[in-house]
Amino acid sequence: MYAVIETGGKQYKVTNGDVVFVEKLDAENESAVDFKVVAVSTDDGFKAGTPYVEGAKVTAKVLDTVKGKKITVFTYKPKKSSKRKMGHRQRYTKVQIESIEV
What we know:
Layout: E1 2-7, E2 10-14, E3 19-23, E4 32-42, E5 45-48, E6 57-67, E7 71-77, E8 82-88, E9 91-101
């Protein structure tokens, strides 16, 4: 059994017990969060929502908020002696999938 959830403008395929890094959520550590279910697959078959599956819910526990790998961004304008170097570290929330309810 698996479900496709949507959060932060992205979709993730998850099963029970999975640990997933999603875009930063405004939630405390050890709290429970619910995600919208786009599609769900069970032993009975596959069900896709329009846009979400009614009555389906995925519950997860927030484990931690972490930073991703550093990305270096370098911009320049040729022949103008203009350049800029920046770094960016995206923040993610680490969640563990507790249950999938259909």
